[in-house]
Amino acid sequence: MKISELPKEKKILLFDGVCNLCNSSVQYVIKRDEKDEFRFVALQSELGQEIVKHIGIADKNIDSIVLYLPGIAYYYKSSAVIEISKSLQGFFNYGMLFRLLPTFLRDSVYDYIAKNRYKWYGKQESCMIPTPELKAKFL
User: pTM of the prediction?
Assistant: First the structure.
C-alpha cells in the first residue's frame, strides 16, 4: 500500500510492533473502537516508515505511538493518546482529563514510560500477526 492509498476516513495508529505495552494498547483500542475509526500500522513496517517520513516526524519523536489523520494532522506522544481517547468508549475516554495538564508535563510522563517500556513490559522478537478477524484493521 502507498501513502496515497491510505483510507482518508480512518485514523491511522502507528505503534511499536515489538513492544508488549504498545500491542496491549492496540488491542485495547480495537475492543473499544465501536465506530471502526482506526487502522493500525507497525512503525517497523515499510508502510509505517513511509508514513513517518511523509509527515516529517523526527526519529527521536518516534518512540511508540503516532496518530495520523491522512491529509489533516498527526499527533504523537501524549497528544496522540488524548486524541485516541476522544474516539473510544469506556474508561480510556477519561484520558481526556490529561488534556488539562501542560503538554511538557504530559510528555515528560509519556517519555519516562516510553523509555522504560521494554524493561517493564517486555519485547517481542517480531511484530504481532493479526488474527484473520482483525486483519482488515491492519494496513
Answer: 0.85
